[in-house]
Every structure is written in C-alpha cells, then in structure tokens.
Amino acid sequence: MKLSIGIVGLPNVGKSTLFKALTKNDILIANYPFATIDPNVGVVAVPDERLDKLYEMSSPKPASAQGFGRARKIPAVVEFYDIAGLVKGANKGEGLGNQFLNHIKETQAIAEVLRCFPSGEIIHVENSVDPIRDMEIINTELALKDLETIEKAWKKVEGEARTGNKEAQKDLEALKEAKATLEKGELLSSASYSLIRTNKRIAELNLLTAKPQIYLLNGKLEDIPQNLIEKIKSLGADYVIVDLTNPLTDSELNRLIQKAYEILGLISFLTTGEDETRAWTIKQGTKAPQAAGVIHTDFEKKFIRAEVINWQKLLEANSWVAAKQKGAMRLEGKDYVVQDGDVVEIRHG
C-alpha cells in the first residue's frame, strides 16, 4: 500500500520549503501567498537501514556492460502533496481553498505546518506569528468543509432512511454524530464515537478532519510555546519540530515518516533475493495471506504458507540457506500476523 500525506498550512509558513527539502524537487518558493497554485506531488523513499543491509547480504547480481541484470533495491515510498496556502474562508472558495481542500481528500494523513519562528522578514498572512491561532484557522476551515460534505450526503441518506432501509438509518445516525462533533469544535480524528469510526458511509465521504494529523512546528526548540504542545496533545495528535531555515537532515526526515507510520498504524516487511530486495508497507495486524497479496494478488488467493525470519537474524546467518540450516527460519500459516522487520518468502500454489 502507498502512504500519502498532504502538507498544509497558511501561506508563507514553510510548506514549499519543506516539500523541496523532502523531495529535492525544483518548485516555486516565493515570499507571497499562493506561490503554489497546483498541488506538487513528490515521491520520497523511506530511509530503511534494514533494506540496505539485506541488499548487500543478498549478493546482488553485477550489471552487464549494457547495464542489464543489476539487482534492484526498492524502498517503501511516501507521496507528499504540497498544497496551496489556506486562508480564512477557504471552505467558501476564498484564496485557492476549494482546490486545496479537494486535493487533501485524496491523502491518508495531514501534516500541518505551523510557523513558530519569529522572523519579521517573511510576511505572515495574519500579520503576526501565533501558531495556535493558525492551527485553529486551518482546523476550522477543514471542519466547515466537512460540514458541507455531510449536508450534501445527509439529504440522500435521509431519503433512504425514510423508506425503512436499516443500513441508511444507521448511516444517518453516524452523520448526526459526525455533525454534532464538528459543531462542538472537535475534530473527527480525535472523536471516540464508535458510529463515526466504524461507519462505511462516513469512511466513503473521506472527511478531512477524520484524517490523522501530524503537526510540523517550524522553528527552533526555543521558539515552540509549551501551550502549543499541550494543545496538540489534547487533540490526540503528534508533532515534529523542524527548523526549515536550515537544511532538513536525514534524522528529521526519518522522524516525520516514522510519526506518519505510527499514527496510521503502518509497518514494513521485507523480501530479498539475488534479483531484488524490497520493503512493503502494510497495516499493523495484517495476516500473512493479505501481506502476500500486497506483493501480488495471486499470492493471497493461492497462499500456502510463508517462510519468515526477523531481518537481524537473517543478517546474522548471512544467507537464506544458512538460516534454514540453523533452524532460524519459521514456516507460518494463514493466521500468522506479519511483524515489522519480518523478511518473508511466500509459498503459493
């Protein structure tokens, strides 16, 4: 599966700078609102030392003089969407709001960039630096757009419910809960209501405030107010502090991606051999046949069993053959839950 994150925030808070640092793409960065008109999409490899070490261990085939035959190393990837700056009234079309909000619908998580650095040289659309105010502007606009989406769905569901359709009646209750939650000023991602979390109709609406959030606090550690951290924690969200006035380090990139994996409940398992070493992203709790299906749909349908070993144990053995001889390789069946860092070989019909 593919991990996708929308980078959002007010104009001039560092979104495009972050995107360029992440993806090394050449995009327009300017000191005025709406420098980014269309969403920039960049694919970033997930840094993974396990992948690198397994690739080396598997004795990759050397390339021919023509460049053919080289073994491949394929990391898991994250798609980052850099989206035009949000302003008050975006839900009604102010600025480039409608475009912005539609693009966020296609992502799995939202990374909100909040400006914490005090520089007076860079214009702030609200004329002052206040990250909590900025957070509230963004989340309010997301909530208002969600309410609009709910209102549109409501009419159809209400009509179906009146006919006695029991599923539609359950959907209507879920919509009522979602609407009441948003009207109280709460995000759906922090709501504990079971109807919202389990209802298929709600999921299909792809509501913006239901997406997990990571806050990227742009500034030095001393620029970050404690009440901002407390506010983020109260929303059940997580944060990463990044000083975008300096080059983004690998460790900062790792922290961001790690947080994204954590909030979405994702892990990686690996496959390795002479032709290819690859990382695969799955949901935590995925069983072996479904993990096999991520590699190829036929593998899930025709799954027999999986050979499994932890990546470190495989490195210690230094080869598949040696691992088998030492009894370190396990045979697992259809009920096995794949763990982060498992190296897997699928046996199928």
From TrEMBL:
Gene Ontology cellular-component annotations: cytoplasm
Annotated TGS domain residues: 265-348
Sorted UniProt keywords: ATP-binding, Magnesium, Metal-binding, Nucleotide-binding
GO MF annotations in UniProt: ATP binding; ATP hydrolysis activity; GTP binding; metal ion binding; ribosomal large subunit binding
Domain OBG-type G residue range list: 3-265
Protein family according to the UniProt entry: Belongs to the TRAFAC class OBG-HflX-like GTPase superfamily. OBG GTPase family. YchF/OLA1 subfamily.
Name of the protein in its database record: Ribosome-binding ATPase YchF
Naturally occurring in which organism (per UniProt): Candidatus Harrisonbacteria bacterium RIFCSPHIGHO2_02_FULL_42_16
Source lineage: Bacteria, Candidatus Harrisoniibacteriota
